[in-house]
Structure formats: structure tokens, C-alpha cells
Design a protein that fits this description.
With 298 residues, the chain is an alpha/beta fold. 33% of the residues lie in helices and 19% in strands. The protein is elongated, with a radius of gyration of 24 Å. One of its GO terms (biological process) is response to antibiotic.
């Protein structure tokens, strides 16, 4: 997918390939401008691909839009509601478009929308618009739902309620594809993650697979200064490193498991070293994301 012309042309999506398994939650992560929203909008049928092949539930999202529409829920960044309509009216209108929608009132209660159901869309806060957009995306009982930044602007309670709802959709066999800038959200909810940069998928896997493929974990020890670091390193897996950035504070970069911790404490006992504190730090999905995409602002 290209924008602009000539020398100013930008490839928003460039040979991107990904597959989503049914009944799973798949997150598409990437820096601003990486091509996430363009990819989602192409799958939703709002953009026609300039090359390549896109299939959603086995159908062409543009040519087969009428057949796909009842089976797919879409949460847009722009909201998708009319400015003058009341929130509750908009949701009831969306429900009326489907043959077997979810009951509206329990959904309103579930997402805490009762307090603003009679408020016009233009007067809603950002978080209220997000909750309405989510409700509109799922009220038709979709087989597949696209969520573009579903918890942006939400307070912690609403964010947690959204997480629970996404997990419930999965338990009912609904396939969810979402974009998010919250790495903890992707790590908590996703069965599979695709990291996108410059219009291409640069890494894919489960959250645990992506984290395991990154930098090693860290153990921080506090004890007396001047330990024989080379001797301690020999007790650790191959490739491990032991540093003493400050006297008495040691950083051990290594794979961490119970056997490694046992060898470290055994070495300390053999060398009459009293450990004052030990802290195990595990890499997160955010750490891996920054390793792959860089720390520079976009």
C-alpha cells in the first residue's frame, strides 16, 4: 500500500504477510506509522490493496463486503458514530441491523454506559467514545472482530473491563485482531503477536516466544564487594556475564531457572559469601519490542 507520488511516495504496507488463527486473540504491534492501521483497514475492506491478496474468513473484504459485513465487527479509531446521535440510540440502531444481536441493556451495563446513554456522541469524552465503539463492534455477535486501539483513553476500571470482555469473546470462539500501543495489554491478552515496522512483519510468535527470543534475563545480587566474578561466571550457563557496576552490587546476565539460582547460592555458600538480597528481572514484551524497533521517537 503506497501513499503519495514520485519521490514523495511512502510505502505504508510493503509485502506484509500474516495469518490469524480462528478463535484466538492476535495483536499487531508497531511504532507510529508502521502500517498497523492501514493493514487493519485493508482487512476490514475500507482500503483496496494495490497488490497482493487479502482474505478474511475466506472472502475478499472488498468484493465480498456484503457477505462479510454481518460476520465481522469493527471498532474504528474514528469511532464510527454520528455526531448528533445519543450513545444509547446509536448502539440500539447498530443492534437492529443484525439478525441475532446481543441484548443491548446487559451490554450497556457491562461497559458502564448507562451514565452517558442519553448524551450525544459529540459530547462524549474520549473514553466514553471508546466504550461505545467497542459495544458497536460486538453487538452483532461477530465471528471476527477488529479492535483498533481498544483501550486508548480508558481509565483503569474500563481498561480492565475491556480485557475481560476480549477474553470472554475468545472463550466463545470469537477471533479478535487488535492493534495496541500497550505492551502489557498485548502480553496479557494475546495468543499471537505480530510486530510490524516500516510496513513489514519483523517478528511473530506468542508473547512468551518473542520474549524468550530476546535478550537474556538478569539477576541482581547485593553482597560484599570484590567477589571473584570469573569464578562465579563458571557456575552459570555458557555465555553468561557477571558485572559489578558498583561495589557489592552484581549484575548476572543469564538464562534464569531454579537450577541456575541453586548454583549461584551454592557458589556463595562455598565461598563464605552472605547474600543480602537477590532480584530476578525478566524481560517483557516491551523490552523485546524496543530491541526490534529501536528507542528513537518516530
Amino acid at each position: 500500500m503506497r501513499y503519495g507520488r514520485g519521490g514523495a511516495e511512502v510505502r505504508a504496507v510493503d509485502g506484509l504477510t500474516l495469518t490469524v488463527e480462528p478463535g484466538t486473540v492476535t495483536s499487531i504491534l508497531g511504532p507510529n506509522g508502521a502500517g498497523k492501521t492501514t493493514t487493519i483497514e485493508t482487512c476490514e475492506g475500507f482500503r483496496r490493496p494495490q497488490s497482493g491478496r487479502v482474505r478474511v474468513l475466506g472472502l475478499d473484504p472488498v468484493a465480498d463486503a456484503a457477505e462479510l459485513r454481518p460476520r465481522v465487527g469493527v471498532m474504528l479509531q474514528s469511532g464510527g458514530a454520528w455526531l448528533g446521535v445519543r450513545a444509547g440510540e446509536m448502539l440500539r440502531h447498530m443492534a437492529s441491523l443484525y439478525a441475532d444481536p446481543l441484548p443491548v441493556e446487559p451490554l450497556v451495563e457491562r461497559l458502564g454506559m448507562a451514565s452517558f446513554g442519553r448524551t450525544s456522541y459529540r459530547r462524549l469524552s474520549g473514553g466514553q467514545k471508546q466504550r461505545l465503539s467497542l459495544a458497536m463492534a460486538i453487538v452483532g455477535r461477530p465471528e471476527l472482530v477488529f479492535l483498533d486501539e481498544p483501550t486508548a483513553g480508558l481509565d483503569p476500571q474500563s481498561r480492565r473491563a475491556t480485557w475481560e470482555l476480549v477474553d470472554e469473546l475468545r472463550r466463545h470462539g470469537v477471533t479478535t485482531v487488535m492493534t495496541t500501543h500497550y505492551m502489557d495489554e498485548a502480553q496479557e491478552l494475546s495468543d499471537h503477536v505480530h510486530i510490524v515496522d516500516a510496513g513489514r512483519v519483523i517478528a511473530s510468535g506468542t508473547p512468551s516466544e518473542l520474549v524468550a527470543a530476546g535478550a537474556q534475563n538478569t539477576i541482581r545480587l547485593r553482597t560484599r564487594a570484590g567477589l571473584d566474578r570469573d569464578s562465579l561466571a563458571k557456575e552459570l550457563p555458557e555465555g553468561a556475564a557477571v558485572a559489578e557496576p558498583e561495589p557489592g552490587q552484581y549484575v548476572l546476565t543469564t538464562e534464569v531457572d531454579p537450577a541456575v539460582l541453586h548454583r549461584i547460592t551454592g557458589w556463595c555458600a562455598a565461598h563464605d559469601v552472605l547474600i543480602e538480597s537477590v532480584l530476578v528481572e525478566h524481560q517483557t514484551l516491551e523490552d523485546r519490542f524496543l530491541e526490534l524497533t529501536g528507542r528513537e521517537l518516530r
